[in-house]
Amino acid sequence: MITPHRNNKSLEWETHWQPDPAYAYERRMVRTLRVAHSPNDTWQFTSDDGRPVTLYPDPGLDASGSFPDPGHFALLLGDSVEAFLFLDPAGADACPAGAIDGTSLGITPDSGRPVTEALNAALAKIAADGGGTLVLGPGRYETGTVQMQSSTYLHLAEGAVLQASLDLDAHPLDEPGTWPEDLPRSLIPGTRRRLISFRGVEDSGLLGTGVVCGNGSAMRHLYPGPRAMMQLIRAVDCRRLRFEGVTLRDSEFWSTHIVLSEDVSFIGVKVLNEIPPPGWDSFLRPDSKSVWNNADGINPDSSQRVTIERCFFHTGDDCVPIKNTGCHHNRLTDVADITVRNCLMCTPTTAMKIGTETRGERIGRILFEDIHIVEASRIIGLDLKDGAEAHDVTFRRIHARRCNRPLDIWVIAREGQVDQTRFSSIRDIALEDVCIELSGIEGGNQTSHISGRDATFDVCRVKVRDLAIDGCAVRTPSDMALELNEWVSDLSWS
Length: 494
Prior knowledge:
This protein has two helices and 38 strands. By secondary structure, it is mostly beta strands. A hairpin with a 2-residue loop joins strand 35 and strand 36 (about 470-475). The two termini are about 45 Å apart.
């Protein structure tokens, strides 16, 4: 156990997913602490058994123990991840001038009653009056689905928790016909509910340092299988959305799904979801999903100009998977100009991914840079199964502290797709200054793959520069466990 001390005063961790005998499995508890950053604060971290505490990434503490910059950090004892520290920029919780207090519009915290009706009415009124920011102060707000409006922002103040009702009827299903019915289940996962909905909205978003809680752990317990499959946030046909500072916690399914939208930013957002426990597959019921919890982080889907910066991910599934599903009335557009920068990631699956849903024509101009990965099964995954061409994808200045497999870049077939004739291709992929640690990992398949399907659906122009695994430079494919096939061309290493 680690104890944090700020200015010689000990602080308490917030704990998530504590042991509970009502659950048939051992929950994996997570400790976090979120405070505003000040360069004048002095910090110390002590362990109960006297072992030294390591911070990842290294914050560059000065002699007095002060953090020079805000950021997200994992606290380690040896190889064990014990807790996460979030230092928000000063002023992250500041409200804009003229913001409207929710209590003035009948939204009361800790009332024991859902605020769904009052909250949606308040957002609609503010939009009708020309727009503005609605502020929810400290306290717990139980709610069904929230319908966001154009020119209207929801600010969750420090201590505010917007929490999903466990009543599924409070989260309506999408209207019939929204989701294609003639595609394999592996392609269209079937989520039809969400806590916060942005539909055809412009100039809107979530701000503040409060929490959006999906009650995902409880929902998986109460509604096994595909009955709930609820996201925290879904945006469809939107423009200019901002998500800043908030914590997205305990999603039952994908935390966010950004569909057919443009100019969307996530800045300083914390995504905190339950990680499947050891032996999770033994707890599945006959009607359960084939995986524990598809609790992805941020999913850009058929969208353009999405920025994800200074964010934290602790996810049950992939951290940032970029997709093209056609999940909204089978509409497909190219995916382009997605930037993921300066983030900290922890996942039992893939940290940075394109796919597997890749139905459109092109997915390109994708940049991942300055990413630190605490733990992951796989660091990079380009899993193209459905026909889109992936092009101009760059991974730059990536550091992974602990992982099982570095990368897969491959064209593969879609499960359950009978007589598939259209496959993907991959072009112009760059890995620059990538450092990966495999040491200490036991079991699992550590072999990476770069492979095409045939001469048409192939992989071409992959450039690898300054790749190191376990501290050793990788200058050729033979320097690492990597399988290539004959449908890969113009692969360069330096």
